[in-house]
Amino acid sequence: MRDLLALDDLPKELDIAVMLPADNATSGFDNLADLLFVSPTLMERYLAAARKISRLAVGDPTMLPIVDTYQLDRDLVQDGHLTGLPLGTRGGTRVRSHLPLDGEYLITVQFPGAAREPHDVEVSVDGERVRLFTVGENPPKRQASGVFTLDADPDLQVRVPLRAGPREVAVAFLPKSGALAEGQVRSYRSRSRQPSVASLIISGPYGADGAGDTPSRRRILSCRPATGTTAVDEVACARSILSTLARRAYRRPVTDVDLERLISFYDQGKAEAGFERGVQRAIERLLVSPEFLFRLERDPAGAAAGDVYRVNDLELASRLSFFLWSSIPDDELLDLAVGGQLRDPAVLDQQVRRMLADSRSEVLVTNFAEQWLFLRDVDAKEPDTGFFPGFDENLRRAFRRETELFVGSVLRDDRSVLDLLTANHTFVNERLAKHYGIPHVYGSHFRRVELDDESRRGLLGQGSILTLTSYATRTSPVLRGKWILENLLASPPPPPPPDVPALDETTDDGRPRSMREAMEQHRANPVCASCHAQMDPLGFALENFDAVGRWRDLSESRTPIDATGTLPDGRRFEGPSGLRAELLRSPDQFMHTITEKLLTYALGRAVEHFDAPTIREIVQNAERDDYRFMSIVLGIVNSTPFQLRKAS
After folding, report:
1. Structural domain range at position 241
2. Do 72 and 202 fall into the same domain?
């Protein structure tokens, strides 16, 4: 939608991710073709989504008001400045939303409860203040016209005229003066008693007065019939608009049959309510076309089942854009494919580098890295705050953001992929720096910092990985070892046998067992021993990190941490640094793993035994370039599996 119709920051009510169910995933990836299918229910949702999106894109004046609710997590701490909000403010939130039409919009701010004293709240749109409220008990009389008392109603509202298109709406608390008037007594202030925002609701438009000038209308309406234009000229304009959109959506030149099919829907819409309704109806049809919904690769004429052939330039362009951008090819890539030039190795190399330098490649980090590393699972983790009282939503978000920025820096800077394990820097904000014990970091924005603590280096020292491989109340050497085997070494252990008893955490005399003692008892079971002999040593090396990634010297049972590990072949190591050194003794295994994962993501299918020579070749070639990320990507793009296909 972003690249086809210039629609971004969709209202939650019209968000594709909300309207359509999540895709099935296996081995962490949700883009594998074998798992994707279209049920009748899903088709109904596609149809409904196409209607809503097309109306939003064109600016249908008959659209009913929408209600867009942004709920903040209850344990999100709002005691400091948030990135993107005005300097000096505290807490609050900011959201970007695409407003469908020019008109009045109602902005509602909800609070979880009453404040103990007056606080000023600023509501702004696109950085401009639209209202300043005072909330809390006994506000000054001089501000009576703008007073809102939380004890009476935990909401405040402001109705403002806004233009259609992407808008940023923000709400934040202004700083309070520390000065006291004579005779006043300062009330006790606790961070937990500071007022906070519970939700921000944007509803409208009310009294819509036009579609406005939005990026989507500029993208779509490349021509507009003037008043008094003949029907022939209107159809010619519609054909121009729809042929341009269809070429991008179908990722190939448009045929007369394609265009006539869309024009038939245009004619129906025009008969209902004029030219723009006709264009909207045609776009609605385009968005549910199989040519748009599916990545179609047709066997060449005369190909027999099982024949292997090279995909054409247009299919190669689609493979490339969905790999690097998770989106459709842009005009430059499509023009090269139509001209038959994309196959040229020099042209293909230049296009890969251009696409990775484009901001759209950020999705390669968010889609690939989050699925490969299971970062999305961090959101589902709920560490017990009785054991870890410092854990909150701010920290959870910081965990994910750190890893996204860290992996993204390897991609953007074209560094060695081995830096994912060894880099002596990371990205933190003040909240995360305090958690890690890194001094002199202030503010909510993330910045790169050098790491003095060698244990924190690379992915294995990051809170996201350490939290998602732990339980709510304690660490798990098993989960951590299993994660390393699966995601760094491509050697997943088999599933555990049924009816495995829980760990016995106390000895016969009631003394708390250390984690190592409990696991040794568990490994005494011959059924469990073989797998745990591989997993446990890897996980024990990370035992100095607790279940939310803090360094510690004592375990949950208050026993000293033993972070040594012994592999089945007798090799010993200790702590995160020793584990990292052990993994780097044979870097090819890690490089094979990340290449296999990236190839799986690029192809949209699981790798098979016949892909092994390709993976070995890519890794061998990358070794000559210090295993740089670009060399891995170029190796995949130029590989046999990426450029060839077997006829069905």
Report:
1. 2-60+213-293
2. yes
